Amino acid sequence: MHTEQIKQYIIEPTLKQLNLYSESAVNLLLGTAAQESQMGYYIKQISGPALGMYQMEPATHDDIVTNYLNYRDELKQQVQSIAPINADELMHNLRYSTAMARLHYARVSEALPEANDIEGLARYYKRYYNTPQGKATTDEFINNYQQQVMHER
Hints:
- The structure is a single chain.
- The chain is mainly alpha-helical.
- The protein has eight helices and no strands.
- The protein has helices spanning 3-17, 23-37, 58-67, 73-80, 89-92, 94-106, 118-130, 138-150.
- The relative contact order is 0.18.
């Protein structure tokens, strides 16, 4: 998918609707999508359970709902205005998967890195999204970001 269109028509309006918009959040989600699915090339993990542009596992989705969203009624209503809360929506609805990826990061108490700090975004992604046990590396994130996000701008 075209990175600038994903940014303009999916990520930015979704984050604004959730009142979770920042340039840092936009760039972090663009980098996450570039790393996890090659910007939407994969909608289901080939040999695993992860779904959608951000390759979120259903168990992670359910944890966000159970331990975060269920305690924030207004935010939950905003997400429900995008789509029904259901892990299957991660594959079928770009705005929903974007909302859930943003909520995954919103649970982190550490502030987001600066919008143009690609190395900082890579470290943040690795620590909080992929986790230290995950296969991705910060170098992969940086390379994917440069090739798929910066290349199209």
